Amino acid sequence: MKRKIVALFLATCMAASMTACGGKDASTDNASSNNDTADDAAGDDAAGGDDAAGDDAAGGDDAAGDDAAGGDDAAGGKITVGFSQVGAESDWRTANSASMKETFSEANGYELIFDDAQQKQENQIAAIRNFIQQEVDYIVLAPVTETGWDTVLQEAYDAGIPVIIVDRMVNISKDDLYTAWVGSNFQLEGEKACAWLDAYAEATGKGSEELNIIDIQGTIGASAQIGRTAGLEAAIEAHDNWKLLEAQSGEFTQAKGQEVMESLLKQYDDIDVVYCENDNEAFGAIDAIEAAGKTVGKEIGKDILVMSFDSTNAGLTDVLNGKIICNTECNPLHGPRVEEIIKKLEAGEEVEKQQFVDEEIFAGTEDVPSIKVNDAEYPVTTVTQEVIDGRAY
Ligand code: GYE
Questions:
Q1: How far apart are CA 232 and CA 238, in angstroms?
Q2: Do residues 188 and 373 lie in contact, with contact meaning Cβ atoms separated by under 8 Å?
Q3: 252 CB under 6 A from ligand 1?
Q4: Could you say which of 57, 308, 331, 355 would form a disulfide bridge with 282 (CB–CB 3.0 to 4.6 Å)?
Q5: CA distance linking residue 309 with residue 232, whole number of Å
Q6: What's the confidence (pLDDT) of residue 115?
Q7: Angstrom distance (rounded) from CA 295 to CA 58
Q8: What is the pLDDT of residue 75?
Q9: Residue 77 confidence (pLDDT)
Q10: Tens of pLDDT along 15-29?
Q11: Is 271 touching ligand 1 by the criterion CB < 6 Å?
Q12: Is the distance from the beta carbon of residue 228 to the nearest atom of ligand 1 less than 6 Å?
């Protein structure tokens, strides 16, 4: 309970202006020493404006940090984190789950309640309700889609449990229903991939040729799908000679990627580029293309060019093998980033509402040394075995 109230206080601080929370007095009496309802505690604190959780953490006795180090709460002094994970649909997701589990280990002072939602929002909503009931200290949510979160996040908010969103985004009516988000700029990823294709076509003398493009989309309504599809749509809009033959969801899985590609190969015999919205879809698409007797490769007009996102080890290995021509990175190692947010909250510090991760772009050829998107220049890394061996996922 104690932790719950501290958490609500911190969440309220985040929502209120920092001047209201940044006073000097380190008394967290409300938060630490009585049985006030969560509403009372947060209300008083926020209204009083004198209590600084940060001061507490720095030198006080009642700091949330103290709790974490040796408190007496249900988890035996550990910080409990309920993590609602999308599923296990891809190599990216496996790396992401591993990162979260490694970070939020018992040895690091956490009790992690990990829930795999099997790509279903209703399972995520049930998991969050379960976390609320268990009075976890933090809820971490990797949302399957952007919409549909208002009710359950309001419930977490009312219970005084800070919610950290990771990876994909939520689209909610009130911003203070979550404390912080960390993830990727998915539209930028799409724009980078398309800038690469544009530069590659130019560099190989095919800049004015017609390009027939297939988009194997991710899970419809997921930020990663929305952003990557939007990046492609904008590029198609900007190129008279680029044509989107079809966009269909491969649900970020290899099996579905293969299925979609198989059926599209029957429909179209003039596909130039397959824009797969993740590596696993690309693996499935490659299998389908090869089974249909066509070639994946780098020659526009002769091969089918497979583009992908994530840049997992297996994805970059396919770049090295010449099967994927360009792979735009999406970094899954969010465990330490979420932990940093939690540590700051524990210390009563302000956290950034939204944090974007820096990401690279990889290609199988040296034709395009760098690309430009919105006036920013991004180097393109040519994949070698050394590059792959030097990466963590
Ligand atoms: O690209 C894909 C996974 O949301 C960024 O989800 C994530 C995406 C990732 O299934 O492989």
A1: 10
A2: yes
A3: yes
A4: 308
A5: 13
A6: 98
A7: 62
A8: 61
A9: 86
A10: 433 333 333 333 333
A11: no
A12: no
Residue found by looking up tokens 């040394």 in the block: 369
Q: Which of 270, 281, 271 is nearest to 308 (CA)?
A: 281
How far is Cα of residue 164 from the mean position of the Cα atoms in its chain?
Answer: 11
The maximal CA–CA distance of the chain, rounded, in angstroms, is 73
- Distances in Å between the alpha carbon of 200 and those of 17, 195, 205, 319, 365? 48, 8, 9, 15, 9
Instruction: Give the nearest ligand 1 atom to 87 CA.
Output: 10
Residue owning tokens 């130039």: 272
The whole-angstrom separation of Cα 216 and Cα 212 is 13
CA-based radius of gyration for the chain:
24
Nearest alpha-carbon partner for 330 in 359, 371, 287: 359
Which of the residues in the chain have pLDDT under 70? 1-75
Residue type, 337: R
The backbone torsions φ and ψ at residue 59, rounded to the nearest 5 degrees and listed phi first, read: -150, -5
Percentages (nearest 5) of helix, strand, coil residues in the chain? 45, 20, 35
Among 90, 100, 169, 277, which is best to mutate for testing ligand 1, by the most ligand atoms less than 8 A from CB?
90
Angle, alpha carbons 216-217-222 (nearest 5°): 165
What is the pLDDT, as a whole number, of residue 12? 43
| Contact (CB, 8 A) for 151 and 159 | no
Instruction: State whether residue 216 is helix, strand or coil.
Output: strand
Nearest residue (CA) to ligand 1, atom 8? 224
Q: Residue 393: CB within 6 Å of ligand 1? A: no
Which distant-in-sequence residues (6+ apart) come within 8 Å of 146 by Cβ? Answer: 168, 169, 170, 171, 221, 222, 223, 226
Which residues 6+ apart lie within 8 Å of 293 measured at CB? none
Structure tokens at 96: 């992401």
